[in-house]
């Protein structure tokens, strides 16, 4: 079943190895279950790392939550798109839940003045995406308060709209806009401090 791990990311068809693996896991075959966990972990670990950098302390918990959810949902797995896209879909939902919970429970003031989204937004987005600056971006993000860091990552790495973020965090769009403005200002200040 090593062929499963070697499949190119864009290749979607379900092969008989996946079907056999899922069937064996459902029969409570310990060896198959260990292989299932190992295979899925290989797929979801880099996925979580990319989305949770620089603070990776939640990766193990999210991996465990994802694997448990997958195991519980395995009887309903139809295999139409393949095991890898299916498990990554579960992982994607776990990351979104993580962002939602952390921003929802974070303490921040809704009445703080903040600048509207400006060209600053484009500059930060470019900085977040620039490969040459990636290490510096990670260091700057790590220095931010968690709420600011999560808001920036959710908005710019995950591509969440302001409306989606506000709804998920049970905040108003105005409040979320202010949070993002403060986060961008803080990021910019720390970024500029790092240039000296």
Could you describe the 3D structure shown?
This protein is mainly alpha-helical. The chain folds into two domains: 2-95, Rna Polymerase Sigma Factor, Chain: A, CATH 1.10.1740.10; 119-195, Winged helix-like DNA-binding domain superfamily/Winged helix DNA-binding domain (Arc Repressor Mutant, subunit A). The chain has ten helices and no strands. It is elongated and about 55 Å long. The N and C termini lie far apart (53 Å).
Task: Give descriptors for this structure.
196 residues, mainly alpha, Rna Polymerase Sigma Factor, Chain: A, Arc Repressor Mutant, subunit A, 2 domains, 10 helices, 72% helix, 0% strand, disordered N terminus
* Mean pLDDT across every amino acid position: 78
Tell me what the CATH architecture of the largest domain is.
Orthogonal Bundle
Helix content, binned percent: over 70%
CATH superfamily assignment of the largest domain? RNA polymerase sigma factor, region 2, helix turn helix motif
Which strand-content bin applies to the residues? under 5%
Overall radius of gyration? 20 Å
| Element-level helix/strand string | HHHHHHHHHH
- The helix-and-strand class reads mainly alpha
Q: Tell me the count of domains.
A: 2
Query: Can you count the beta strands?
Result: 0
Q: Quickly count the helices.
A: 10
CATH class of the largest domain: Mainly Alpha
């Amino acid at each position: 079943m090593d062929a499963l791990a070697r499949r190119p990311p864009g290749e979607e068809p379900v092969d008989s190895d996946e079907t056999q693996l899922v069937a064996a896991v459902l029969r409570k075959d310990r060896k198959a279950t260990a292989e299932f966990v190992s295979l899925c972990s290989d797929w979801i670990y880099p996925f979580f790392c990319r989305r949770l950098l620089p603070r990776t302390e939640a990766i193990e918990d999210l991996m465990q939550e994802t694997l448990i959810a997958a195991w519980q949902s395995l009887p309903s797995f139809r295999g139409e798109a393949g095991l890898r896209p299916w498990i990554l879909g579960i992982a994607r939902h776990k990351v979104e839940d993580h962002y939602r919970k952390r921003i929802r429970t974070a303490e921040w003031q809704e009445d703080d003045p903040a600048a509207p989204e400006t060209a600053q937004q484009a500059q930060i987005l470019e900085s977040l995406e620039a490969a040459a600056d990636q290490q510096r971006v990670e260091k700057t993000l790590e220095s931010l308060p968690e709420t600011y860091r999560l808001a920036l990552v959710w908005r710019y790495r995950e591509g969440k709209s302001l409306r989606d973020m506000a709804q998920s965090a049970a905040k108003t769009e105005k409040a979320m806009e202010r949070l993002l403005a403060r986060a961008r200002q803080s990021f910019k200040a720390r970024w500029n401090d790092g240039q000296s």
